[in-house]
Design a protein that fits this description.
Layout: E1 4-12, H1 18-26, E2 44-50, E3 53-59, H2 69-80, E4 87-93, H3 102-109, E5 115-120, H4 132-147, E6 152-155, H5 164-174, H6 192-207, E7 217-225, E8 229-238, H7 241-248, H8 253-270, E9 273-282, H9 290-295
Parallel strand pairs: 1-3, 1-4, 4-5, 5-6, 8-9
Antiparallel strand pairs: 2-3, 7-8
């Protein structure tokens, strides 16, 4: 029996549902999926294995015009996903302007590999749509067909798992014959510490407003695992003293809430008792320092 394997990279603008789609396809919470834009900062692999195939999915940061070095690194992760894909999934949604970030779209237009354009969030069809839902969706499909004429177009709802089974089947058809690239029991290319940082950062995204979530990075200083439990020390870095005060909150209440929610999520993720200690430190302008970004793993090389 022939074996298929390949890299299926997920790209698109911020907040169109790339991480939600990745989590549905892989069947595990690999990527942070929140309602806030710019949630994914790294390129994250999630691996789907069956006896006859291995699909290596990559979730990438939303494409944007960078304003500081962190965003330059995020864009580099997205652009690197155009270089090594066997199949490219370009994700948009029903409300996005098709001509947003045309520079990136022009690179997708020139690709020779199979491109599947996914129109996500079709469950958000406006009520009382003139001409009915079918006409509304057809007009969106038509616009995208004009921009990416070689792409296959598939309307989906990643949140509601609509169209995802059909997508998996189509990906399997498009994969090249190849032996597996990773061990068949491997779920991702990222170490455990990475997911600790991501889960803590997810809780910060959910519980703080304005610039705080985007000025925060998390480093795991200690990760000690036994058969039944994991002891973790993590440092939450911010850029200014005023941000440190907001993250900690009055009498430490805000930080305690985030830490408690993160600990619960980590216990679910690892299936073990987790003891989590969090600290907050100031690292001025870490988003603009290449040395600091490299130390946090923002290096697409």
């Amino acid at each position: 029996m022939t074996h298929k394997a390949g890299f299926v990279n997920i790209v698109g603008n911020p907040n169109v549902g790339k991480s939600t789609l990745m989590n549905q396809l892989v069947g595990e919470r690999i990527s942070i999926a929140t309602f806030k834009a710019q949630t994914t900062r790294h390129r994250i692999m999630g691996i789907v294995n069956t006896p006859e195939m291995q699909i290596v999915f990559s979730d990438t940061p939303g494409v944007l015009k960078p304003n500081y070095k962190l965003q330059e690194s995020m864009l580099a992760f997205s652009e690197s996903a155009l270089q090594d894909a066997d199949v490219l999934l370009y994700v948009t949604d029903v409300v996005e302007n098709p001509e947003k970030n045309m520079d990136f779209l022009e690179k997708v237009q020139k690709m020779e590999i199979p491109v599947i354009l996914l129109i996500n969030k079709i469950d958000m069809a406006p009520s009382g749509t003139e001409g009915g839902t079918d006409n509304w969706l057809s007009s969106i499909v038509e616009k995208w067909h004009g921009l990416l004429p070689k792409a296959e177009i598939l309307p989906i709802s990643a949140k509601n798992k609509f169209g995802t089974d059909m997508l998996l089947k189509r990906i399997q058809e498009l994969l090249p014959e190849s032996p597996a690239y990773f061990d068949k029991d491997q779920l991702t290319d990222k170490p455990a510490r990475f997911f600790v940082s991501e889960i803590i950062r997810e809780k910060i995204l959910l519980y703080y407003d304005k610039e705080i979530p985007y000025a925060v990075e998390v480093r795991v200083e200690q990760f000690k695992e036994t058969q039944k439990s994991i002891h973790i020390n993590a440092v939450i870095y911010v850029e200014r003293e005023s941000q440190k005060g907001i993250v900690i909150g009055h009498q430490g209440v805000a930080l305690k809430k985030v830490s408690t929610e993160a600990r619960k999520a980590l216990e679910k993720f690892f299936g073990k008792t987790v003891y989590l200690e969090t600290f907050v430190k100031v690292d001025k302008d870490w988003r603009s320092s290449q040395r600091e970004l490299d130390s946090f793993g923002y290096n697409p090389e």
